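Report of the visiting student (M.T.), summer placement. My assignment was to run the structure pipeline on a short list of targets and document each run. The first record concerns Hydroxyacid dehydrogenase.
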Amino acid sequence: MKLVDRMKDEELGTALLYNFTKGYGKPVPLELYDVVLPLLYHDLVRDQILSYTSLQECIYQCEQQEKHFKQHILETIDDDKTMTSKALGVAMIQHILKFEIVDNAMCGVALSTDILDLNEAIHLGKLFQDVSLEDFMTLLRQEDVHIVVLQSASVGKDVDLSKLCSLGQVTMYEDTKQSEIRGRILGADIVITNKNVMNQDVLEGLKHLKLICLFATGTNNVDLKYCHDHGIKVANVKDYSTTTVAQHTLALLMHLIEKNVAYDHFVKSKAYCHSERFSYFDDVFHDVSSMTWGIVGLGHIGRAVAGIAKAMGAKVQYYSTSGKNATSDYQQVDFETLLKTSDIITIHAPLNEQTHYLFDEEALRKMKKTAYLINVGRGGIIEEKALVKVLNEGHLAGVGLDVFEHEPLLEDDVIYSIQDMDKVILTPHIAWGSIEARQRCVNEVYENILSFLKGEERNIVNNE
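After the run finished, the structure tokens were exported:
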């Protein structure tokens, strides 16, 4: 589709609105039609829109190429309302679109017609599928908001961060040392980080800062009281990695229980070639269904893991570190009972005063000698010095750690003094990090900021 003379008549408008409705794929709120023609009559949007996978990216890239792009679109929305109304009227008369009430709102629905496909209009409809008119207008009207991303690499270089750029003026750093934070956020209205420590030393005197967003659920690296007292909102992301962490929990456990390293080596070393047996059982493994699976922390992730444990036939019991999670779905026990009776213990709790060093030497020694321990919560929940000590004494059948007291590990970290590394599997804090989960994380931060700019609160954690 090429519009070389910008001729705006009802027939052309009707075709554009019809194809937009086809691309939208569901009833279109009537008010949304007001922005269709202003966008598609704009040469820059029309020429490049097929290159974009999100509306936010399209708006951002157009603004980079045309200084007053947003203002131009805002002005033409009002100018083109009459043309839009006429085109919708023609569409109704010609039985190209019908209008019906859906969820108390008048909406347009595409009917069968021989109008040719206009790919740009269809694609614009697809880009608007999850964008409300209010969200779009917020993007257009948002000016002069300075957003600083301190740790973009913490969510990976393979995820799409471009939609953040549509929210304001964005300065992005792959990583930021603690000593660099303050200098980089002077004048920022919004800061996005992951693990940087945002304490009083960093935040004091920053008059512009209104919001700190985290690429994370945990907030222990932010001084929430200081932020509350100084009018700085803090927003985290929730539930973006629940299934991913549960999946990694199972992967760590199965790696240990099934003795996969030993059996893999047996085959790859060609020892299997010289064996007289078609099966080799020298490394004993067990059915999970014969075990009791203890869960520490029955939040969203803990519940997801409990569902996996139940599906595998294990007896499930849990200990609530906060005392707030109670359910009749699984047996709740005290911590000592959990330690003494569980064959598997998986940790899914946050790090706080109640959970710091919850698994100290005394607790670890109360566990069965044959038990497996998996930590995908936070490193400080297990006292690593004590863990290494009991492991080296032959206590515990296996340990899987995705989180550590020091991240990244130190060169001389106590973890490296474990004598039998075949009893452990160590991963670098990746349980949350499938590419799908990381993109969900970024999208959630975007939604948090968008809500904040609209005067709404979303995932704010420091209101009290």
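The chain has a mean pLDDT of 93. The first strand starts at residue 28 and ends at 29. I thank the supervising group for their guidance throughout the placement.
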